[in-house]
Amino acid sequence: MLKPIMTISRYILEQQIQNPGATGRFSGLLTTITLAAKVIAREVRKSGLLDILGKTGDVNVQGEQVTKLDEFSHKVIMDTLGRSGHVCALASEEEESIIEIPEGYPLGRYVLLLDPLDGSSNIDVNVSVGTIFSIHRRITREGKGMTEDFLQPGHRQVGAGYVVYGSSTMMVYSTGQGVHGFTLDPEVGEFLLSHENIRMPEKGKIYSINEGYHDRWERGVDEYIHYLKREDKETDRPYSSRYIGTLVADFHRTLLYGGIFLYPSDRKRPHGKLRLLYEAAPMAYLAEQAGGLAITGRERILDIQPTSLHQRIPLIIGSRQDVLTAEKFIRAAS
Ligand code: AHM
Ligand code: MG
């Protein structure tokens, strides 16, 4: 018997049918994101073959070099979503200010925040990269979207997700009804349901942090990581260490296998490195939807009221028990 094929668009539609108040506009937005993801995935796959690798020489608003694939991904998303009629403005990690919808195109009731190509330093060495997105309902009433539409705490997101361009391309998203994963079948050209209702294990056995910055860590982080390395049968220690350097890929592993990912504040980066709106908040939304937790060390990520578009935030995310233990160490040392 042929197994029914659940494409992402059908899944989105079925979730919409179960919600009698839905107008279909939100579903349209999600479907447009999958189109952008497919176009980017195609380009990522080709990137080793074409002359698309290397730096363009530009420096983005974070002061980092932009590679060509970053620019490509940014443009694809702006083009497909900016003209989709579903959003009233966009914001991207690659642009300083919010991005307006081109003149003449209809304005939707949502705003979309994106990290078009996360982990871009890994592209040239064939290591996974990703796209992260976060969706809010606009809070201004009409006209063009404004910065305040984007500066909403993470718990107000109406959807969030990511695409990981790895050994296969996967899209993982949540609209507040659990976390679902779809794998791109390159021959069919569709994302097919492969991981329904993902639950993060209560406790894992893997920790993920850039240990190179060890000397700059605060005492609580140092003591916690040291604790994870000590042998203890009862608590299943030592933990294994894994660090890819692409948040999407490190988070994806943490979501499926459990464990903890940390990009804490340190002496050099008092606010950490990751961006609240483009990276931490959408991942925190997914983590909580899957039964995990996400904190700065002291506060819940989803409670933080953003003050600027490119604000950075320390991120500690993963299995519930692991995050609670990390928090205990950090609190005890401060
Ligand atoms: P990017 O947006 O410039 O790619 O930077 C974000 C990336 C994350 O994907 C990753 O978790 C982190 O930077 C790694 O930083 P570091 O090299 O300092 O460990
Ligand atoms: Mg990033």
Offer a quick outline of the entry.
This protein has 334 residues and is an alpha+beta fold.
Structural notes for this entry:
With 334 residues, the chain is α+β, with helices and mostly antiparallel strands. The protein folds into 2 domains: 8-195, 2-Layer Sandwich (Fructose-1,6-Bisphosphatase, Chain A, domain 1); 206-333, D-Maltodextrin-Binding Protein, domain 2. Helix content is 30%, strand content 22%. The chain is built from 8 helices and 14 strands. A 7-stranded mixed sheet has the order 3-4-5-6-7-8-9, sandwiched between helices. Helix 1 runs antiparallel to helix 2 (25-46). It is globular and about 60 Å long. The mean pLDDT is 93. The protein binds 2,5-anhydro-1,6-di-O-phosphono-D-mannitol and magnesium ion. Magnesium ion binds at residues 93, 115, 118, 247, 279.
What's the CATH class of the largest domain, please? Answer: Alpha Beta
The CATH architecture of the largest domain can be given as 2-Layer Sandwich
**Which H/E pattern describes the elements?**
HHEEHEEEHEEEEEHEHEHEEH
What compounds are bound to the protein?
2,5-anhydro-1,6-di-O-phosphono-D-mannitol, magnesium ion
Q: Tell me the CATH superfamily of the largest domain.
A: Fructose-1,6-Bisphosphatase, subunit A, domain 1
- Structural class of the helix and strand makeup? alpha+beta
Amount of beta strand: 15-25%
* Overall geometric form: globular
Contiguous uncertain segments of 5+ residues: none
Radius of gyration from the CA trace? 20 Å
Strand order of the largest sheet: 3-4-5-6-7-8-9
pLDDT averaged over residues: 93
Major pleated sheet: 7 strands, mixed
| CATH fold-level topology of the largest domain | Fructose-1,6-Bisphosphatase, Chain A, domain 1
- Give me the number of helical elements: 8
Number of strands: 14
Distance between the termini: 60 Å
**Tally of separate domains:** 2
Helix content: 25-40%
